[in-house]
Amino acid sequence: MKKLGVLLSGRGSNLQALVDAERRGELGGAIAVVVSNVEDAPGLERARQAGIPAVFRDHRGKKREAFDAEIVDILRAHHVDLVCLAGFMRLLSPALVRAFPGGIVNIHPALLPAFPGLDAQRQAFEHGVKVSGATVHLVDEGLDSGPIVAQEAVRVLSTDTPESLAGRILEVEHRLYPRAVRLLLEGRWRVEGRRIIVEEE
Ligand code: GRF
Known about the structure:
The chain is 35% helix and 25% strand. The protein has helices at 13-23, 42-49, 64-77, 94-99, 120-127, 162-185; strands at 2-8, 29-36, 54-56, 82-85, 104-108, 131-138, 148-155, 189-192, 195-198. It has a seven-stranded mixed beta sheet with strand order 3-2-1-4-5-6-7, with helices on both faces. Strands 8-9 form a two-stranded antiparallel sheet. The chain is globular, with a radius of gyration of 16 Å. It binds 5-O-phosphono-beta-D-ribofuranosylamine.
């Protein structure tokens, strides 16, 4: 059974989607550990409720490399095969990215490469795009710049607010992320340049 490590800083609704998919036998792996840099992140409590080891590590007062080395140690101690970022509000150091080559994945609430970075749903809304969505991508050393694993579009309605758009994107995230994780864990993919080629079932 492949093992997942989830890194988060907040609410943890994507963690919950992964937990629920695992319970349904649809994740293709087991969540071995959840790590947060925020002590009272609701996502940590969700992990505890699900019986998953939940670890808090404070990043404050530490150099990025030192904090990331602690994260790598925790993930390695739990024999993690795939690291899932789920609202982890930290830039990863090159050392952390290199510790899991091709083995870190992120969910982003926009259709990358449009609107990388923070508050992507609001960025898209304010830009006036008619379609946005969610992207699952491998993590490289850039900001939301790694090869794309899966995407799904969400229409922007004239009645939308940034919040209502973010809500519909979040529903898509919760479907898309577990599916993409399963695909990665099952190894039904290969990378050609920037393209991830998926072998369909
Ligand atoms: C999601 O919108 C995700 O796309 C982004 O951060 C948010 C995390 O939400 N990377 P949650 O903590 O999973 O509820």
